[in-house]
Design goal:
The complex is a heterodimer.
Chain A: H1 3-19, H2 22-42, H3 44-47, H4 49-72, H5 75-82, H6 84-89, H7 95-128, H8 145-172, H9 176-203, H10 209-217, H11 220-233, H12 246-271
Chain B: H1 5-9, E1 21-32, E2 35-46, E3 49-54, H2 61-69, E4 76-81, E5 90-93, H3 105-113, H4 122-128, H5 144-156, E6 162-166, H6 174-189, E7 193-197, H7 201-207, E8 210-215, E9 218-223, H8 225-231, H9 237-244, H10 258-264, H11 266-274
Parallel strand pairs in B: 3-7, 3-8, 5-6, 6-7
Antiparallel strand pairs in B: 1-2, 1-4, 8-9
Classes of the chains: A mainly alpha, B alpha/beta.
Transmembrane segments (chain A): 24-50, 56-76, 97-130, 150-173, 180-203, 247-268
Organism (chain A): Halonotius aquaticus
Protein name (chain A): ABC transporter permease
Chain lengths: 273, 285
């Protein structure tokens, strides 16, 4: 049996599991409600996409990690506790294929929850904001749905990097009960700890401008914020914002995702012998 | 079978129609934190036979099975698989099996069936473990016993050359437990090497071709049930167990009292096996 067939079988199962998990729908409604509330509350909806992005950026830096933890922390530990991983190991299912499929399934859930919520927000902005927000041709100085689309994509990239971090943290512990503690701890270390370390580094004069931009790109939240500033908000103003390199930020998020998945597969291989 | 003591003490299988060894362990030792679980275990697991591993709780039966499967690395010694080169050489029934609660019985079997090359007759498989009527029921709505039956179906799916079952009868009513052992014995008769870790000695005595009794430190005795009973001049396998096992072995206080054990389980099992004329419900009430 080919690896591709096995992988597609596993992914189908993950997607069907997600589609049948009611709590995800409730989570989606909650996230949608919060984002819509912030959109209207912040007044961004009436003025355009970019003001809405500015309103939502900081809340999303908190909300997206919470969603990532909520959908990811039990994924592998539950299968381990049930003995399903041990049973699957007797088939030609490698830990890498299993972790990859679980990740893609959970990433799809996060993408659906956050993506649909942001899509609804975008539609609301399109419906109530000033007429020029309907311009699709992008060039500097014009608010546009395209910019909001970029914001959505960047947000999903950030969220799905955190799902990978949550997966590796949850596999590192022995049970589903302790997995939530590990997942929250890992996200806090990565999200808060990373930025705190940079802040301390700045205060101690460790960084110059170039190394600071590099460091910012390798902390998920900073990378996300940098991508939003450089590719969405910054488009409206002339010149670079100087916050972070979009390329380094993109590489940073991809590295977090790939490295976490690699570590997760390695840990799982070690857990099941 | 009437093999010499030397052979049986090595844990060699019964002489079952010239069956060949499919898994061999040599000097298998497992320690956790310096504490030996078992030491120097030599086993030959034969195809076409059911090998039962019995012993007190905590003596290392599950660890031994997991070592055979490659899920636990031995501290010393080797496990050698010499069976056919297939995608799924070994099936596994864990001690506490469970499945994704969102799926039905049919969907669960179909999922695992899609991971093997061989065509799987889902209908026949579910019928074999008495789950046909529950095929459209979600796993979350199954009793513990029914989930175990589903796990039995999963373990033998695709006819792996070896199947390791950890307590296959646990949580099942006597008739269903017998049915599971019958089914596994049938698989063995078809050429599969079936390894079960079990406390249900009456079923082991009835269906196993070869019994390995684990005690602290390793294999205390091994042979066919009839051979062991003859060797220890015992009435049944319970008597052999009582004779062989150190009452303080393992972590189950009940195992230190053979009479109490028999009173709790033995006669009930024997009666149920002997007089099992009732229809098997598979716990589907």
């Amino acid at each position: 049996m080919s690896s591709l067939t096995i992988m597609s079988t596993l992914i189908r199962r993950e997607l069907r599991t997600a589609a049948r998990t009611r709590s995800y729908y409730l989570l989606g409604l909650a996230v949608g409600g919060i984002l819509l509330g912030l959109t209207f509350g912040g007044g961004g909806a009436a003025t355009g996409y970019i003001p809405t992005v500015v309103d939502l950026l900081l809340p999303l830096e908190v909300l997206v990690p919470i969603v990532a933890v909520a959908i990811g922390y039990r994924a592998v530990p539950s299968d381990l506790d049930r003995g399903e991983v041990a049973m699957l190991d007797t088939y030609a299912v490698s830990p890498s294929a299993y972790v990859g499929a679980v990740y893609l399934g959970r990433a799809a859930v996060l993408s659906a929850i956050v993506g649909v919520a942001l899509l609804v927000v975008g539609l609301v902005v399109a419906a109530v904001a000033a007429p020029d927000t309907g311009v699709f041709a992008t060039h500097s100085g014009v608010d546009s749905p395209i910019l909001f689309g970029r914001f959505l994509v960047v947000t999903l990239l950030f969220g799905n990097a955190l799902v990978a971090v949550v997966l590796v943290a949850s596999i590192a512990v022995t049970s589903a009960r302790t997995a939530i503690v590990a997942a929250i701890g890992a996200v806090l270390v990565v999200v808060v700890g990373g930025e705190a370390a940079i802040l301390l580094g700045v205060l101690d004069g460790v960084f110059n401008e170039a190394t600071l931009r590099l460091a910012l790109g390798f902390v998920p939240n900073s990378a996300y914020r940098g991508l939003v500033f450089e590719t969405v908000v910054g488009v409206l103003s002339a010149g670079e914002s100087g916050y972070a390199s979009p390329l380094i930020s993109m590489i940073g998020l991809v590295l977090w995702t790939v490295a976490s998945l690699g570590a997760a597969a390695g840990l799982l291989r070690w857990r099941i012998g | 079978m009437t093999d010499a003591d030397e052979a049986t003490s090595r844990g060699e299988p019964t002489d079952n129609d010239g069956d060949t060894s499919v898994v061999t362990t040599t000097g298998l030792t497992k320690e956790y934190g310096g504490r030996p679980i078992f030491e120097g275990v030599d086993l030959d697991i034969a195809s076409g036979a059911m090998t039962a591993v019995i012993g007190p709780n905590g003596i290392g039966k599950t660890t031994l099975l997991k070592t055979l499967l490659g899920h636990v690395d031995p501290t010393a010694g080797t496990v050698t698989y010499t069976g056919p080169n297939v995608d799924r050489p070994m099936g596994y029934l864990p001690q506490e099996p469970a499945f994704r609660p969102q799926f039905t019985v049919n969907e669960t079997v179909d999922f695992y069936a899609s991971l093997v090359d061989a065509a799987v007759d889902t209908e026949r498989l579910l019928g074999e473990v008495n789950l046909s009527e529950a095929r459209n029921r979600r796993v979350s709505a199954l009793s513990g016993g029914m989930r175990r039956l589903l796990a039995v179906a999963q373990a033998v799916l695709g006819d792996p050359p070896v199947v390791c079952c950890d307590e296959p009868a646990s949580g099942l009513d006597p008739s269903m437990a017998r049915r599971v052992f019958e089914s596994l014995a049938g698989r063995a008769a078809d050429g599969m090497a079936v390894v079960v870790a079990s406390h249900t000695l009456s079923l082991v005595e009835t269906y196993a071709d070869h019994v390995v009794i684990l005690e602290s430190g390793g294999v205390a005795a091994a042979g066919s049930p009839t051979d062991l009973i003859e060797r220890y001049d015992a009435a049944d396998l319970w008597d052999v167990y009582d004779t062989v096992i150190d009452p303080t072995a393992g972590d189950d206080p009940a195992t230190s009292d053979g009479a109490a054990r028999r009173g709790d389980d033995g006669p009930t099992e024997r009666e149920s096996v002997a007089s099992d004329a009732t229809a098997d419900t598979g716990g589907q009430s």
